[in-house]
Amino acid sequence: MESFDEYFNTLWDAAMDEDLRVALKRAVERFRRNRAEAFKIYPWIEEKAEKLRKVKDYSLLHMDELAKEVKDRVEDLHGSCIIAETAEEAVEYITDQVKAGDIVVKAKSMTSEELDLNRHLEEAGCEVYETDLGEFIVQQMGSRPMHILAPAVHVRREKVAKLFSKVMGREFKPDIPTLVTAARDFLREKFIKARVGITGANAIAAETGTVFIIENEGNAKLVTGLPDKHIVIAGLEKIVPTLQDGMLVVEVAMRYANYKSSSYVNLISGPSKTGDIEKQIVYGAHGPREYHVVLLDNHRREMARDPVYRQALRCLRCGGCLYACTIYPLVAGYFGHVYIGGIGAILTRFLAGGIEAAAPMAYTCTLCGRCREFCPMKIDVPEMILKLRGELAERGLTPTRVKEYVEELIGFKTG
Ligand code: SF4
Known about the structure:
It is a single chain. By secondary structure, this protein is an alpha/beta fold. It folds into two domains: 4-41 and 319-410, no CATH class; 46-301, NagB/RpiA/CoA transferase-like (Rossmann fold), CATH 3.40.50. Helices cover 52% and strands 13% of the residues. The chain contains 20 helices and 14 strands. The chain has helices spanning 4-15, 18-41, 45-61, 63-76, 87-96, 110-115, 117-123, 133-141, 157-168, 176-193, 219-225, 243-256, 300-305, 320-324, 328-331, 341-351, 355-364, 370-374, 381-394, 399-410; strands spanning 80-84, 103-107, 127-130, 196-199, 203-205, 210-215, 229-235, 239-240, 264-268, 273-274, 282-283, 290-296, 336-337, 339-340. A six-stranded parallel β-sheet has the order 1-12-7-4-2-3, sandwiched between helices. Strands 8-5-6-9 form a four-stranded mixed β-sheet, sandwiched between helices. β5 and β6 form a beta hairpin. α16 (341-351) packs across α19 and α17 (355-364) packs antiparallel against α20. The protein is globular. Iron/sulfur cluster binds at residues 148, 315-321, 343, 374-377, 379.
């Protein structure tokens, strides 16, 4: 864990980094242009977002019964499902599903960052590959995601070429299509050899137990389709009542994430099966033989009980607020701790590190409120940040006290 001073120095270095500034400027401009174009084609999307807000609010107030419904449906469909109260319980369940020597491929799984899952899988003797291109780049760099949806937003093509040359053992020019093909070729073999595929979920429909995964690259199709075993790890807030509600999540999330339409939407409701011989159902046809869903609490229920913090659980992880933020374009994901930005401060406080990890982030936010304007779920980040600062102040944790407090927690002076 960083002290407040270390965190401040990291932010300062990031703000002074020319490479980072160029990469972020390009990304922010492109995002804003694409989003404006998408909104011209789909002007009714704000109405749909309003409808989804109501669905999400209902779902958060009925989290327990919806989770139970998902569990029942998944089990009916010949899968396994657990509701993990803690991160440790989720990690234990998932690591029980792998064995030393397994190749594990992963896609679209921000929640697994919350669990530090890759480290646990590697300690269990697995070879783990992130397969979303941005995640793959960040993993191979030994770095961490710098945006919810575009984890390698800060890495310029020249750096990717150097990295791939080292990882793949041959020279690559900084030509983007060539680099994409290199990653495709490298990962293809891993998909085929993988015994376990792990994904997150954009939504889960309680009435059918169906998991929705939105993607563009086609890697989630392979992660969910080729290995023997598919494990889904998703927060309880991803559950919505019906299949139609799940479609609404898909529609709103992909428009606000800047795409007119994502290339693929995967809907998964159990292991693969066939009844083509004498109508006898056999599980494990061409797709996975086993299917596991891990529904993660890890303080989400506590958040859902709080009338102010609850709204953070409506977050679709569309990432729009980060491009609107006054601080993010200067320092990228260094304004973060697993989760990024103002919304990230609140998610960090509950889901990824606790109040001490969220403290520096709470004081980085300028309370400008631009994120609220861009957010499809109208999440009032400044309102929550003020509440968080109140909690910090109650602990005597004002900015001048943050350093001392962190030192108390980590047990030594940071200089
Ligand atoms: S807070 Fe809103 S804008 Fe930001 S990622 Fe979540 S849903 Fe998207």
